Amino acid sequence: MNKVMKAMAAMMLLTVMCFVAGCNKPENKDDDVRVTTYTPQDVTQTSAVCGGDVIVTQGLSLSELGVCWSTSSNPTAEDSHLSTSNWSEPYVCSITGLDPGTKYHVRAYALRGLEYYYGDDKSFTTEGNSGGGGGNGGSGNGTYNGHAYVDLGLPSGTLWATCNVGATTPEGYGDHFAWGETQPKGYYDWSTYMYYNGDTQSSFNRPGLTKYCTESHLGYCDFADNLTTLLPEDDAATANWGGGWRMPTKAEFEELYYNTTFAHTQQNGVNGILLTADNGNSLFLPTAASYDGSTLYVLDRTGCYLSSSLNRTDPLRMWALYFSVIGSADCGVSGDGHLRYNGSSVRAVCR
């Protein structure tokens, strides 16, 4: 009898143990790590702001929180991604280098050990080529200090303003500046140029340059300072649009010239050239001509856009981008054109 009772007791104990064991759920990793993908914001032609956050079971630790994106649904960390090791705070970042007019998928993800956890798939579509970012040369695909720029995908990352300094539209001529001066004026020649002294009253005086001079025989009383790039206080773009904007260098004009194709076109009835980059974005430059004295020469047929770079071997001149739409369109970067006192256009750059 005792043996029977003991056997029954053992069976009951085994049944209870199995029941208890059956009530203990196996580990659910989705409950331990829960990732949320934020809805993409501030979508432009080439960028978007994305992010996410993660909630983990107390005591667990992660090594990475980030976002991944692709043109295919449900991207993974093996696709393009950005991340941070500070997973305890929401992660928000700007993803750049996107193609205009393209649908993208993005997911937030977390990494624990060797295992990845993902949030929901969110999609967005970048803006198409329009305005200054496309053939119309309009509003551009970004702004800095209140002025629009276009990203031409240049190797240096230089961004070009969509309007001339002094203009409010891409086809507007804007203001004209002597090289090294920051305000337009009514008459352009050596007698009104800020950095030229024409005093010949003394036999010891010789007229010439008083700043940015590499050849003493062209300087006032043999002056030379060997400055070859405009300082910020003499940069018309910086002075009028604020820090971050500046006049392009000779090298940046050459980069623009060699990394785009140019063609004569009109925008809102204004002649100019359209410089189109490999990424499909383009830049319109109007034929704003240049001043000599009080006369704009060859208006609506030519353009001269100042660089911040001095012609070292002939400091009476500067490097500039010149173009003409007389006959077949012609364009190039030269240091042998206008004199520094001529009033010419400024197209600013930033990075």
List keywords for this structure.
about 350 residues; mainly beta; Immunoglobulin-like; five-stranded antiparallel beta sheet; four-stranded antiparallel beta sheet; 4 helices; disordered N terminus
Break the fold down into its secondary structure elements and pairings.
Layout lengths: L1 H22 L5 H4 E5 L10 E9 L7 E7 L9 E5 L6 E5 L7 E10 L2 E4 L3 E4 L16 E3 L2 E5 L7 E3 L34 E2 L10 E2 L26 H6 L8 H9 L1 E8 L2 E8 L4 E5 L3 E3 L2 E3 L4 E9 L7 E7 L5 E5 L14 E2 L1
Antiparallel strand pairs: 1-2, 2-5, 3-4, 3-6, 6-7, 6-8, 9-10, 10-11, 11-22, 12-13, 14-15, 15-16, 17-18, 19-20, 20-21
Biggest sheet, open or closed, and with what strands and sense?
Answer: 5 strands, antiparallel
Secondary-structure-based class equals mainly beta
Strand % is 25-35%
Q: Helicity, in percent?
A: 10-25%
H/E element sequence: HHEEEEEEEEEEEEEHHEEEEEEEEE
Q: Can you count the beta strands?
A: 22
**Overall mean confidence score, pLDDT:** 85
N-end to C-end Cα span: 94 Å
Q: What does the overall shape look like? A: elongated
- Unreliable stretches, pLDDT < 50, 5 or more residues? 1-29, 130-139
SS field, number of helical segments = 4
Radius of gyration from the alpha-carbon trace, in angstroms: 32 Å
Number of domains: 2
In brief:
The chain contains four helices and 22 strands.
Structure explained in plain terms:
The chain is mainly β and 351 residues long. Helices cover 12% and strands 32% of the residues. The chain has 4 helices and 22 strands. Strands 3, 4, 6, 7 and 8 form a 5-stranded antiparallel sheet that branches. Strands 9-10-11-22 form a 4-stranded antiparallel sheet, with no helix packed on it. Strand 10 and strand 11 form a beta hairpin.
